[in-house]
């Protein structure tokens, strides 16, 4: 499906789930290389940038979080950017592009000139919006990390093991999706020089700056998760050690009692317990004395 937007002589053609008819239209209208259009028919696994005579072809992946199930999603956008046109192709609905389209239409209707004089400026504002969206989502993840931190110190260490794993997965997916962005954006400085005026290099560097904000947020959040996981594991291990200590003390308490009981049950003519010469309650009191004595000893050693 092709959606067309026109602003100040600049065309933005947004294609969702492009098919062969859409590809033929792009070839005919904008003289796009058929090999490039062929690549639009299916997702590309890795980011790339290719320079042609009057335009360049760029593929980037933008991670996001699915609002319906909370799972991380990797969204691909293919850009074909010429002097007076920008083509974007993607394979699912992208909220940021929908919002950008509304802004684009409003500015076109009001005849505002603040989006620039060629398609490069439209591309800059679009990429900036996409990176800002990622920063917002990383801020949401950061808020989640703070909630986990509160729960960790509220005694919910066991439940937080799974929560920390989910957050770590989100951050890992963000990192993997953006792994090659810096390299690709560095290549844009050379590519855009062939199409736009030298002054546009400032905006290319600004795009790199937006990317670095995202990268910095990912690193900060991953460091926080790492430290929080270590703290959570330490607290959880401390709880386990406390439980094991209690079981060990219980074993030490019951061992002498079992030993005394075994001695009492020995088949021997001289056993006063077996022959019934000692009453039941003195035996019980003796057992209690042993238990109390061991508890006092453990407290003296600060084992309890």
Commentary on this structure:
The protein is α+β, with helices and mostly antiparallel strands and 304 residues long. Helix content is 62%, strand content 15%. The chain has a six-stranded mixed beta sheet with strand order 1-2-6-5-4-3. The longest helix has 64 residues, at 201-264. The radius of gyration is 35 Å and the shape is rod-shaped. The termini are far apart. The mean pLDDT is 83.
Structural class: alpha+beta
Largest sheet: 6 strands, mixed
Q: How large, in whole angstroms, is the Cα Rg?
A: 35 Å
Overall mean pLDDT: 83
Amount of helix:
55-70%
Proportion of residues in extended strands? 5-15%
Q: How do the strands of the widest beta sheet line up side by side?
A: 1-2-6-5-4-3
- What's the SSE pattern? EEHHEEEEHHHHHHH
Unreliably modeled segments: none
Question: What's the N-to-C terminus distance?
Answer: 72 Å
Number of strands: 6
Using the alpha-carbon principal axes, give the shape: rod-shaped
What is the number of helices?
9
In short:
The chain has 304 residues and is an alpha+beta fold. The chain is built from nine helices and six strands; from the N terminus they run E-E-H-H-E-E-E-E-H-H-H-H-H-H-H.
List the helices and strands and how they pair.
Blueprint (H helix, E strand, L loop, with lengths): L1 E6 L2 E7 L3 H11 L3 H6 L8 E4 L3 E11 L6 E11 L2 E6 L4 H16 L8 H34 L4 H21 L3 H13 L7 H64 L7 H4 L4 H21 L4
Helix pairs in contact: 4-5, 4-7, 5-7, 6-7, 7-9
